Amino acid sequence: xxxxxxxxxxxxxxxxxxxxxxxxxxxxxxxxxxxxxxxxxxxxxxxxxxxxxxxxxxxxxxxxxxxxxxxxxxxxxxxxxxxxxxxxxxxxxxxxxxxxxxxxxxxxxxxxxxxxxxxxxxxxxxxxxxxxxxxxxxxxxxxxxxxxxxxxxxxxxxxxxxxxxxx
Length: 167
Fold this sequence. Notes:
With 167 residues, this protein is an alpha+beta fold.
């Protein structure tokens, strides 16, 4: 039986734009005006109203990204300000905030603060530090390379000079 909670998980943007589906990246939303949804594995085409209705219609679970109805399905966390990620759909609405934006707890009573911006800033700072370390190492390699070329040139001159002295 299809539940009201599942139907409420579908958020309709407007009749003129694509429907917003909880747990799916925007690129995978059905097009505007489309009343059908095709399972990710291509096995079935279903009415769009079957999406997130808390009943697993697709064997791959792709019709239930915003619920925990399908074992092995995945939920998309947009995590704006940080990096998007997927979590197992079994973690959706379980009272534990798995996405930094809290989007996985859209229908639970859990209060999930959005800490994506702070996580993004931390990751950005760490990436800058790695970038500096790599640039320092690259500068060292360039320096060693130019020193090696200079030494080789000097040694080749010395070998040529010694060969002249021997002959």
